[in-house]
Each structure stands twice: as C-alpha cells, then as structure tokens.
Design brief:
The protein has helices at about 5-20, 20-25, 35-45, 50-60, 90-95, 120-125; strands at about 65, 70-75, 75-80, 85-90, 100-105, 110-115. The protein is an alpha+beta fold and about 130 residues long. The structure holds zinc ion. Zinc ion (ZN) binds near residues 106 and 109.
Length: about 130
C-alpha cells in the first residue's frame, strides 16, 4: 500500500500534467488526457484512510459469485438474485470497464463478480 505522501505527490503530478494552464509554463510535463473527476475520486478514496479501509472491507467481505451463476436477463445484462429478494445486475459495459463489485438493488449487500474477459486471441489459442 503506497504511503499517503506518495499518493499525494502522484496526484499533484497527474493533476498538474492534465491542467491546461499549468501545462503551458511547465513544458517538461507531457500533456496527459486525464479525467479530473475520476482522478479526484481516486485520490479522495486512496488518501482518506477510513474510506480506503471501508473499500478494503467491502473487497474482503464481498461474496464472490461467478458470472456463470448469473442469468443473462437480456442481451448484455446479467442478473443474480440476492438473498434479500433483490437483484444484482451487471452489464457488459461494467465488464468492459473491469468492474467486479456489484451492489444489490434492494439492500446494502455487495458481491464480487468473477469473470474473465475473453478476447478473440484467447478464443483462437484455446480452440
Ligand atoms: Zn439484497
């Protein structure tokens, strides 16, 4: 786990690199196309110890459910019944973005959906 100071300096570096005003008089920093909102969110999560611990706890306590145990409700949408009667829903875009954590729509349960992205390369080598 990186130290808070490391996170902070990396954040500032990234922020600086993506800031159009700062970029002009700091030509040593190459322009980077960064989603500032995402950067801030990542920084907030990582730099705040309690939210980092909470996130770690979610990861640790989340039940792992294989995508194979989900039902394809419609094209690109998979659902799984929560024990509360609610539904976990994961869509193709979530998987493309590498998201694994899915919250129940009715309660506060979170599950970690197990899947591997199958690329055309894999298909070709595995037959
Ligand atoms: Zn639930």
């Amino acid at each position: 786990m990186p130290q808070p100071s490391t996170i902070k300096s990396a954040y500032h570096k990234a922020l600086l690199a993506s800031h159009p005003d700062k970029r002009s008089f700091s030509s040593a920093i190459p322009p980077v196309d960064v989603d500032i909102a995402l950067l801030k969110e990542a920084y907030t999560t990582l730099s705040n110890v309690s939210s980092r611990v909470a996130y770690d706890n979610i990861l640790r306590n989340a039940r792992v459910i294989s995508l194979e145990d989900f039902e394809e409700a419609e094209e690109g949408v998979w659902t799984h019944a929560c024990r509360c009667g609610g539904t976990y829903r994961i869509i193709e875009e979530d998987m493309d973005a590498g998201r694994h954590l899915v919250g129940c729509e009715s309660c506060s349960e979170v599950v970690w959906v197990g899947y591997e992205l199958v690329t055309d390369e894999h298909r070709a080598t595995n037959g």
